[in-house]
């Protein structure tokens, strides 16, 4: 049994069937990619996993616990973090503060009235955050306004924010979208390092096949809201159905 | 039962004033994305257009009347309006009598001008600023506008009556064979209601059936896309601001016979009209109109003495209570769209 | 010092120095000079400076940090005032119970209002708070007259029971608001040549509380809690996906700022034993918004400056009348003096609202960071090196939408 | 020269003037301060400062402006300028046109905003900063009661401006406060006989009442006095202060079977409710075989101006009107009219009288000490100030004088000529016992000289 189980999930928007009977079983400590043409329902699926959307039917369990019906912050506290397609960071805060916030969330839970002691005096949290920043190579920029960062830096910061929580499952929504080749390669290296250095399960949605085949151990192909096929990268590459539904289009 | 019919009638009339103000407010918010706290002030400026015109029409030279004396015992100075000199006393006094309806013609160009100046001179620079800043700068502007009006016209209300023929009231009851005096309603208020309906209809028709309106509506839905099509949406939005100002202005003009205008009438309406817009749903034109009428009717019903006796003070708070209830049960107001003004 | 980093400690010391020395700073002109008109160093105004300073500091904890714009904060101030005056009428004229109860009652009231209003955000939140405040005002003015005194408000009367005072023999201050016998209105005068300075008990009681409130607000700004509030303002969605529940944070901020408002309301009563319902009217809520923005929302010192600025305007500029103006320009030739009077007159005295509105627009247009930003720009001009001396300020540099 | 002084309350000027000539600051005991001054803000030097606290912003700003004009006129007359106005017709001849007690009268002004908080802040600044010995003005009972309580605490005299609620000299009366203006009870007592004469004793009245203290006392006064002449009260409905459109309150009036509408409204409320009532055509209606009538208990000319032609023929009461022909009124109208070009309002009249009465009391008492003033004013009878023989009653510090019943003029000759005096109700008819139930629950207390 995998760490994340998605069973018979359906989601309709008006007349449109966004997700139809999605079943997924994601194994612990793997990198699992979900690919598919535009409008296949990839992002909708991710949104259902983090509580942004509520599926019409079906169930999602994480680590044996039901996920559906919980609020976003509760799902995160279960150990699921997400990197968004456009980096969602605290633009008004400094890089360091951006990383401190998930540190506190990890240590103190969803809410703690911690109104008198200063942030600077929380040495354990400060250390964790600084270590994380140095891991992603951003320590030098810790006092910079995150709003002023480059897109690549924002992406790295967002990943740092997710990783510092030591999630069991990291969801990545097109982590290299809009990046230059060099940045993309850096990101792939970063993700590889992350994977190598800890026990973590990753689910990646990605268009860039280079990224997918560099990282993924298993791939699910989604088309029109339904999983078409799930297999190892090698097998997916040669799969006729996939070629027809997806790679044909991507190659064009 | 008669009492309830009467109050519903009344509420429609009240509601038409709310709806008119809320309509302009929503128009500005929907097109420009600006929260305009000076909208009440535009309503007030419209009302003072009527005052100004009636002052202009009654511009006078003085004639000494030796037969009468003034309060100090000196010969009385009688004002003779120039209009009387030009058109003769009969037509002259008719023109003066009709100054309020005439003011509409005067107010529309003036208010469009004021609106365009406001948009180009101030509001334009606030499109990209946070809503809080927009609220604050337009609030400051509202204070400045009303203080200027107060400086020139004083703090006292200024009577601006309707034309003679529209004074008095229409007896609905008698017209349908019921007892007389049961359901009566002033002519001018009926006119106001009809007027409001026409204006609201005209604005909707304008947005629906003209190319200009379609572009603006498209812009309301997705400004960037329309911009990408190479259409100069900003220019149209400026015009929309002028139109919204004119709608507020004529609403103000027509309101003057109902209540004598004073410099703070805009502020009196401001809070209320915001409640109306929010209850209707930010950015929704039909929502604003619907909420205006709903709140007008509820306010009227709450002012019935039977209701007040049952729940003391209900007439003081009904609007706010309804607003709270609606916002809690319908997060985006009656007809609001998702994601508007929630960040 | 006191668990503050250096720049904050400096700021705190600066505020302490200003409040203690206020009687000198606010009375810079000799008593009998023409400029004495501009002296603001009399007890009532000094008290108002610090009390509305507290109000604005509290408002800023909500608005400056979380970005939630409450348009109904005056209701908490008013509720605090009513609680305080009832304490004085029923128990004792000692200000301590009155102030404590005002904070508690305002806190409870803000808990209820906040719990409901915070279910919505953006302008919907603003309108909900406005609706609650307007309901409070309307009811206090009318049907609640037996509790609130309605139009004529509440004042202590010699017929009040004052149980504790009666029990302990009336206290020394004879039915006046006091701090264990120390009359709030006692003042020391110090005349130096043509100058005279007044040191008022009530002012210093309020000033100590304001310094405490200011200190607490620094601690909140620098705390993990403060960081979370800034996170709410910056990106509430990211916050939720980071495992943080934003609702209790915003509610806590709302209640804290409501308690600050209650403290201000209680102090108003302690200094001037009277409450009227207008204190809760929406324009009063608007005023504290103006104070925060004018001074610089999200900064530590800004709201205090804004409060001082507006109260100074309301009390000093509004008192300049035509004859005073004529006095100033009497030295000029007749025509010129008339001209000067005619030009300036619309903006002062009864025209003070106009000036305030204009200034306010100018600040919002050109100085979105308020007076603090203005000060920093001036300082930068001299130093040629902009310095980020205020952590909260950094949030202001790129306003969030 | 340096002087460190302790006192109960603030006067910067006086403190500055009493230099002790010591280099070291000295703390002076309260007892010493009292010996020196004896009362708050005792005038030092050749001038005395009065505080004129009137609405300069907000809806009553025009009324406030008229009050301010009258104050400036009164100061001019007290200092011997102008034609002397009512000082010449005033029955007391203590005032000599050389200021008060030989000290030149100066004044400071402030803005009440018609809010009790703002009014008190403004009054406090006059007392604490400017050393005002007396505060006067205001245009609403809320403000009057709030400032009166403040003056009582501070130990200065308060001479109320326009305040009509019974409470000002009823349950909220204070020893340091005095009211020249009339009140709700007097309006009722004066109006009832005229209404009976004009409209008969078989009438059904419908009250719309402003939902705050003044409205309550006025409604009670009018209700009890009209019921005493045989009228029936069909309904009383409270309307919110912030209401601007009264249509939903006016519309049901005819259905109720009432034939008289009483509008217990003032200011903007009155202008709007009256305008709305006339709009509904109520005045052309016949109910119970009688003409429908409207009554406005408290009239003011400025408000009548706001309501325009709607006031024609409508009865109400007023404290004073410029068309009165007694010597005092004529003298006042003349000097006010010549200075400003239009006749004074009743608010201007009452504050002018209050200023003169204060000055006169100080002259007669020979001191500015509030307790001396209180003694001089209590039970003081005077004449020549436009209202006939008048008594400042000792028990509640209320002036008892004739009350005017007026009605909106049918054919006004100018924008000021809006009301005509129908009857001058003699003072006996509007006098009530100090312990009348409508005034119960108050306590003057002791005069407070402060210091």
TrEMBL record, chain A:
Transmembrane helix among keywords: no
Going by the UniProt record, its keywords in alphabetical order are:
ATP-binding, Nucleotide-binding, Transport
Q: Where is the ABC transporter domain?
A: 4-249
GO BP annotations of the record are: D-alanine transmembrane transport; L-alanine transport; L-isoleucine import across plasma membrane; L-valine import across plasma membrane
A molecular function (GO) term = L-isoleucine transmembrane transporter activity
The keyword Magnesium appears for this protein: no
GO CC annotation terms, alphabetical: plasma membrane
The record's Pfam families line, in alphabetical order, gives:
ABC_tran (PF00005), BCA_ABC_TP_C (PF12399)
Q: Which InterPro entries does this UniProt record tie to the protein?
A: AAA+_ATPase, ABC_AA/LPS_Transport, ABC_transporter-like_ATP-bd, BCA_ABC_TP_C, P-loop_NTPase
Please give the Gene3D superfamilies that the UniProt record associates with this protein.
P-loop containing nucleotide triphosphate hydrolases (3.40.50.300)
Q: Which PANTHER family match?
A: AMINO ACID ABC TRANSPORTER ATP-BINDING PROTEIN, CONSERVED COMPONENT OF ABC TRANSPORTER FOR NATURAL AMINO ACIDS-RELATED
Q: Per its record, how is this protein called by name?
A: Branched-chain amino acid ABC transporter substrate-binding protein
The organism is Ahrensia marina
From TrEMBL, chain B:
The subcellular location is: Cell membrane
A GO biological process held by the record: amino acid transport
Chief location category: membrane
Transferase found in the keyword field: no
Please give the Gene Ontology molecular function terms for this protein.
transmembrane transporter activity
The way it spans or sits in the membrane comes to:
Multi-pass membrane protein
Q: One GO CC term of this entry?
A: plasma membrane
According to the record, the segments passing through the membrane are 16-35, 42-64, 102-123, 190-216, 237-258, 270-298, 310-328
Q: Which family does it belong to?
A: Belongs to the binding-protein-dependent transport system permease family. LivHM subfamily.
| Protein's name in the database | ABC transporter permease
Provide the species name. Ahrensia marina
From TrEMBL, chain C:
Which Gene Ontology cellular component terms are annotated? plasma membrane
Transmembrane portions of the chain: 9-26, 46-63, 94-116, 123-144, 201-221, 248-269, 289-313, 325-348, 354-375
Q: Where in the cell is it found?
A: Cell membrane
Q: Which UniProt keywords apply?
A: Cell membrane, Membrane, Transmembrane, Transmembrane helix
What GO MF terms are annotated? branched-chain amino acid transmembrane transporter activity
Question: For this UniProt entry, which residues form the secretion signal?
Answer: none
InterPro entries per record: ABC_transp_permease, LivM-like
Q: Name one Pfam family in it.
A: BPD_transp_2
How does the UniProt record describe the way this protein sits in the membrane?
Multi-pass membrane protein
Keyword check for Transmembrane helix: yes
Q: What is its main location?
A: membrane
Q: What is this protein called?
A: ABC transporter permease
UniProtKB/TrEMBL annotation, chain D:
Q: Does the keyword Signal apply?
A: yes
Entry-linked InterPro entries = BCAA_transport (IPR051010), Leu-bd (IPR028081), Peripla_BP_I (IPR028082), TAT_signal (IPR006311)
Pfam families, alphabetically? Answer: Peripla_BP_6
Gene3D superfamilies assigned: 3.40.50.2300
Q: Which PANTHER family match?
A: LEUCINE-SPECIFIC-BINDING PROTEIN (PTHR30483), PERIPLASMIC BINDING PROTEIN OF ABC TRANSPORTER FOR NATURAL AMINO ACIDS (PTHR30483:SF6)
The UniProt entry's sequence similarity note says: Belongs to the leucine-binding protein family.
Its recorded name reads: Branched-chain amino acid ABC transporter substrate-binding protein
Q: Which organism is it from?
A: Ahrensia marina
The organism's lineage is: Bacteria, Pseudomonadati, Pseudomonadota, Alphaproteobacteria, Hyphomicrobiales
């Amino acid at each position: 049994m995998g760490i994340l189980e998605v069973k018979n999930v359906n989601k309709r928007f008006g007349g449109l069937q966004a997700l139809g009977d999605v079943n997924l079983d994601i194994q612990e400590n793997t990198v699992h990619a979900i690919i598919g043409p535009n409008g296949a329902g990839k992002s909708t699926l991710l949104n259902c996993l983090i509580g942004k959307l509520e599926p019409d039917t079906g169930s999602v369990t994480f680590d044996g616990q039901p996920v559906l019906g919980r609020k976003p912050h509760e799902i995160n506290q279960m150990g699921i973090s997400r990197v968004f397609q456009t980096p969602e960071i605290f633009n008004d805060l400094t890089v360091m503060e951006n990383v401190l916030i998930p540190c506190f969330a990890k240590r103190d839970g969803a809410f703690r009235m911690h109104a008198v002691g200063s942030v600077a005096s929380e040495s354990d949290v400060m250390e964790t955050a600084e270590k994380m920043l140095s891991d992603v190579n951003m320590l030098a920029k810790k006092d910079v306004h995150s709003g002023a960062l480059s897109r690549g830096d924002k992406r790295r910061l967002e990943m740092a924010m997710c990783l510092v929580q030591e999630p069991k499952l990291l969801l990545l929504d097109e982590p290299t979208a809009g990046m230059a080749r060099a940045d993309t390669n850096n990101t792939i290296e970063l993700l590889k390092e992350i994977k190598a250095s800890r026990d973590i399960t990753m689910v990646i949605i990605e268009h860039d096949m280079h990224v997918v085949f560099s990282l993924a151990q298993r791939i699910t192909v989604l088309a029109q809201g339904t999983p078409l096929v799930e297999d190892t990268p090698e097998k997916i590459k040669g799969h006729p159905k996939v070629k027809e539904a997806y790679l044909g289009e991507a190659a064009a | 039962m008669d009492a309830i019919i009467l109050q519903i009638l009344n509420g429609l009339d009240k509601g038409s004033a709310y709806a008119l103000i809320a309509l302009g407010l929503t128009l500005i918010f929907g097109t420009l994305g600006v929260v305009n706290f000076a909208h009440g002030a535009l309503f007030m400026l419209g009302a003072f257009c009527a005052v100004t015109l009636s002052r202009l029409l009654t511009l006078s030279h003085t004639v000494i009347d030796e037969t009468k004396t003034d309060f100090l015992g000196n010969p009385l100075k009688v004002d003779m309006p120039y209009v009387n000199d030009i058109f003769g006393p009969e037509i002259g006094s008719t023109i003066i009598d009709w100054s309020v309806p005439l003011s509409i013609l005067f107010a529309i160009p003036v208010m469009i001008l004021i609106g365009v100046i406001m948009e180009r001179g101030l509001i334009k620079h606030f499109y990209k600023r946070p809503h809080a800043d927009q609220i604050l700068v337009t609030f400051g502007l509202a204070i400045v506008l009303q203080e200027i009006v107060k400086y020139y016209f004083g703090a006292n209300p200024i009577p601006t009556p309707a034309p003679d023929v529209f004074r008095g009231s229409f007896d609905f009851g008698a017209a349908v064979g019921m007892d007389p005096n049961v359901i009566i309603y002033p002519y001018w208020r009926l006119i106001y209601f009809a007027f409001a309906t026409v204006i609201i209809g005209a604005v909707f028709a304008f947005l629906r059936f003209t190319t200009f309106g379609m572009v603006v509506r498209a812009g309301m839905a997705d400004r960037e896309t329309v911009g990408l099509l190479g259409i100069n949406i900003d220019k149209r939005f400026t015009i929309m601001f002028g139109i919204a100002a004119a709608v507020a202005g004529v609403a103000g003009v027509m309101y003057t016979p109902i209540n004598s205008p004073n410099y703070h009438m805009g502020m009196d309406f401001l809070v209320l009209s915001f409640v109306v817009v929010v209850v209707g749903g930010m950015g929704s034109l039909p929502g604003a109109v619907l909420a205006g009428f709903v709140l007008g009717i509820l306010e009227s019903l709450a002012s019935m003495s039977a209701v007040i006796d049952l729940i003391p003070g209900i007439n003081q708070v009904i609007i706010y209570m309804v607003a709270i209830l609606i916002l809690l049960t319908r997060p985006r107001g009656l007809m609001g769209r998702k994601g508007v003004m929630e960040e | 010092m006191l668990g503050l980093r250096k720049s904050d400690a400096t700021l705190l010391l600066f505020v302490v120095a200003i409040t203690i020395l206020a009687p000198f700073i606010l009375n810079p002109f000799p008593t009998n000079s023409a400029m004495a008109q501009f002296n603001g160093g009399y007890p009532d105004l000094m008290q108002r400076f610090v009390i509305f300073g507290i109000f604005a500091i509290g408002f800023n904890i909500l608005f400056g940090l979380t970005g939630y714009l409450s348009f109904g904060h005056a209701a908490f101030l008013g509720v605090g005032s009513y609680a305080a005056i009832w304490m004085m009428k029923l128990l004792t004229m000692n200000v301590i119970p009155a102030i404590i109860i005002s904070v508690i009652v305002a806190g409870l009231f803000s808990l209820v209002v906040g719990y409901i209003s915070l279910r919505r955000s953006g302008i919907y939140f603003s309108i909900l708070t406005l609706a609650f405040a307007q309901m409070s005002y309307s009811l206090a003015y009318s049907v609640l007259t037996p509790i609130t005194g309605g139009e004529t408000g509440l004042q202590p009367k010699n017929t009040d029971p004052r149980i504790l005072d009666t029990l302990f023999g009336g206290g020394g201050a004879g039915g006046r608001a006091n701090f264990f016998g120390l009359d709030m209105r006692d003042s020391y005068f110090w005349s130096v040549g043509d100058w005279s300075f007044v040191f008022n008990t009530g002012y210093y009681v309020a000033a100590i509380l304001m310094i405490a409130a200011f200190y607490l607000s620094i601690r909140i700004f620098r705390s993990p809690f403060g960081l979370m509030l800034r996170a709410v303002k910056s990106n509430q969605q990211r916050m939720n996906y980071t495992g943080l529940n934003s609702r209790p944070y915003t509610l806590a901020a709302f209640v804290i700022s409501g308690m600050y408002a209650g403290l201000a309301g209680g102090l108003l009563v302690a200094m001037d034993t009277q409450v009227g319902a207008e204190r809760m009217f929406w324009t009063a809520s608007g005023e504290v918004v103006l104070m925060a923005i004018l001074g610089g929302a999200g900064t530590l010192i800004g709201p205090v400056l804004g409060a001082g600025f507006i109260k100074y305007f309301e009390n000093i500029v509004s008192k300049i009348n035509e004859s005073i103006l004529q006095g100033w320009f009497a030295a000029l030739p007749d025509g010129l003096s008339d001209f000067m009077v005619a030009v300036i007159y619309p903006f002062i005295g009864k025209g003070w609202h106009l000036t305030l509105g204009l200034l306010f627009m100018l600040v919002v247009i050109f100085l979105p960071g308020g007076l603090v930003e203005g000060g920093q720009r001036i300082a930068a001009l001299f130093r040629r090196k902009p310095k980020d001396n205020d952590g909260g300020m950094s949030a202001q540099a790129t306003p969030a939408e | 020269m340096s002087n460190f002084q302790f006192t109960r309350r603030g006067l910067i000027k006086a403190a500055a003037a009493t230099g002790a000539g010591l280099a070291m600051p000295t703390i002076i005991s309260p007892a010493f301060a009292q010996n020196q001054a004896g009362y708050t803000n005792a005038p030092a030097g050749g001038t005395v400062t009065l505080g004129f606290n009137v609405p300069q912003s907000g809806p009553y700003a025009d009324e406030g402006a008229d009050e301010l004009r009258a104050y400036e006129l009164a100061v001019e007359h007290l200092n011997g300028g102008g034609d002397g106005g009512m000082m010449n017709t005033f029955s007391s001849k203590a005032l000599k046109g050389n200021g008060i007690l030989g000290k030149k009268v100066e004044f400071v002004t402030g803005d009440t905003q018609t809010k009790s908080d703002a009014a008190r802040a403004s009054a406090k600044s006059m007392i604490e900063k400017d050393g005002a010995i007396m505060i006067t003005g205001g245009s609403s009972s809320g403000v009057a009661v709030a400032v009166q309580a403040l003056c009582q605490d501070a130990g200065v005299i308060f001479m109320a401006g326009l305040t009509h609620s019974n409470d000002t000299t009823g349950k909220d009366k204070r020893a340091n406060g005095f009211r020249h203006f009339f009140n709700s009870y007097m309006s009722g007592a004066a109006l009832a006989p005229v209404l009976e004469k004009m409209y008969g004793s078989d009438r059904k009245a419908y009250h719309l009442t402003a939902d705050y203290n003044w409205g309550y006392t006025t409604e009670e006064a009018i209700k009890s006095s009209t019921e005493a002449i045989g009228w029936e009260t069909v309904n009383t409905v409270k309307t919110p202060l912030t209401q601007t459109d009264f249509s939903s309150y006016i519309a049901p009036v005819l259905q109720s079977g009432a034939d008289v509408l009483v509008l217990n409204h003032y200011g903007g409320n009155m202008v709007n409710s009256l305008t709305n009532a006339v709009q509904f055509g109520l005045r052309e209606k016949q109910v119970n075989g009688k003409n429908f009538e409207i009554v406005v208990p408290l009239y003011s000319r400025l408000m009548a101006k706001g309501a325009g032609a709607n006031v024609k023929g409508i009865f109400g009461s007023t404290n004073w009107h410029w068309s009165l022909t007694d010597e005092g009124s004529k003298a006042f109208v003349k000097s006010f009219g010549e200075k400003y070009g239009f006749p004074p309002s009743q608010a201007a009249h009452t504050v002018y009288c209050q200023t003169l009465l204060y000055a006169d009391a100080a002259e007669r008492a020979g001191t500015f000490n509030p307790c001396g003033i209180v003694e001089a004013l209590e039970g003081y009878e005077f004449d020549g100030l436009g209202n006939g023989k008048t008594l400042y009653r000792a028990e509640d510090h209320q002036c008892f004088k004739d009350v005017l019943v007026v009605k909106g003029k049918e054919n006004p000759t100018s924008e000021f000529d809006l009301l005509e005096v129908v009857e001058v109700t003699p003072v006996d008819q509007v006098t009530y016992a100090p312990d009348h139930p409508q005034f119960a629950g108050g306590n003057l207390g002791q005069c407070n000289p402060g210091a």
